[in-house]
Amino acid sequence: MDGNKLAVAVAGAGIGGLVTGLILARDGHRIDVFERAPDLTDIGAGIQLSPNAMRILDRLGLGTDVRSVAFEPDGLTFWNATKPAALAHLPFKGPMQRQFGAPYLVCHRGDLQHVLLAACRAEAAISLATGVTVSDALDDADCVRIVTQGRITNAGHDVLIAADGLRSALREVVDPSAQVVRDGQTAWRGSVPPSMAARLVPALDLKRVHVFMDDGRHLVAYRMGRRDQINLVWVAESGAAPPPAGTVQWTAAARALVEAADRWVEWPLARVDCAQWVKGRIALLGDAAHAMTPHAAQGGAMAIEDAFALALCLKNHADVPSALARYQRARRQRAARVASLSAANRDIYQAKGAKAVGRDMALRFAPSSLLLKRMDWLYGGE
Ligand SMILES: Cc1cc2nc3c(=O)[nH]c(=O)nc-3n(C[C@H](O)[C@H](O)[C@H](O)COP(=O)(O)OP(=O)(O)OC[C@H]3O[C@@H](n4cnc5c(N)ncnc54)[C@H](O)[C@@H]3O)c2cc1C
Hints:
Number of strands: 18
CATH superfamily of the domain at 7-45 and 109-181 and 271-346: FAD/NAD(P)-binding domain
Number of helices: 14
Strand content: 25-35%
Shape: elongated
CATH class of the domain at 7-45 and 109-181 and 271-346: Alpha Beta
Distance between the termini: 30 Å
Radius of gyration: 21 Å
Structural class: alpha/beta
Largest sheet: 7 strands, mixed
Bound molecules: flavin-adenine dinucleotide
Helix content: 25-40%
CATH topology of the domain at 7-45 and 109-181 and 271-346: FAD/NAD(P)-binding domain
């Protein structure tokens, strides 16, 4: 360790790993990022970037680049999928920036990844090795040694950040009792070109995010940034017939959108139950620590917030283990609250019978400012 400059190993070059590498490099640390995938291809689908995430990306100077690949929706519209009139329109453009200091954006996650990668590659202090799996780590008193391709690395690091996602290999090193818990639901991801959507569903305002709700399933649709694609996420019980099955009662507009999808990719949903995020010089970050269901559109945002909080803790504590312990204390409660919000949203979106009637009434009559106010703690915090 050179003064306060740390040698940091990061396992995983997803959103969490790249943002962590970038922030820590900007703080003067030396970063080695190890990514299992041989190359970081244009995988994935759409991602919503809420103001709590965007504020951090803006502070990192990435705001212009992210905006250049993203789209700022006018707002969010809730529908009962079987009824022709919308239930509620929440305004995003304007209020988000005014209330929370950053916009609410949507983009393709591959485009976000490109922006983050380019920023990391511009930092001389970051080395990024692809095709390298970190399978284990040995935490000594004065350094941590990682195991890659079955070999222990000679050069120790001062810190290891395990940003290796839902199926983290390093989680077991930190908390052997942690578990990946299947949610019992599956997300099906699809896409439609906006030109086709506009032709098929002229009544649908493609400048907005749409949530169509039905008994036991829901559909989220939004533009993937500057790309000529509409992102569709259909969520229903695992084992249920894939979309568009069961949409007979849906309005023609909602059904046309689902039927226009070119292909659907199945994604069983799961969360991570993990009590310990930190052991000595090793810390879990992002999905590795707290993967959650996607109904609050916050998993990526939480990884970005984790990275920001971790950097602050490393700045403010002389020794690494106390800084990491502080990081866990700073982040656990918020991540748990967001995971609960996601579960609650799922219950609202998929409500049946009297509950669905109550939901529809509440959405129809509650002022949109009140609905947005409920999100103050989330979009205004970090
Ligand atoms: C349907 C769906 C919709 C979603 N929508 C949103 C949204 O709108 N907004 C939002 O904020 N979030 C959303 N999320 C959540 C978001 O995708 C994740 O929370 C986020 O990608 C987590 O980032 P991460 O960096 O922690 O993990 P990951 O993105 O999983 O990255 C982990 C990286 O580590 C690599 N890796 C794995 N194991 C190893 C190893 N042993 N050694 C080295 N490298 C390794 C992987 O290859 C990968 O590159 C959604 C999730 C789903 C399922």
